[in-house]
Amino acid sequence: VTPDAKPVLLVLADYADVEWSCFASPAWISRKTGQGERTVRRLLEALETSGAVRRDRTSDRVILGEGVSR
Length: 70
Fold this sequence. Notes:
Blueprint: H1 6-15, E1 21-23, H2 26-33, H3 37-50, E2 53-56, E3 61-64
Antiparallel strand pairs: 1-3, 2-3
Helix pairs in contact: 1-2, 2-3
């Protein structure tokens, strides 16, 4: 995970439920992290590729994966 992805992961973890998932659109994450929405989309793609998160794009649900220390 790259250093610029850490704020995204922290926001997702802060808002995650007991199943380590939350509903977070790129626009919402962008507002919470102060990063551009395009940057957040790129970071989410990279996090998904690395296995750190799984996403359901139809509902904006993001699930923190096994690659993330809990």
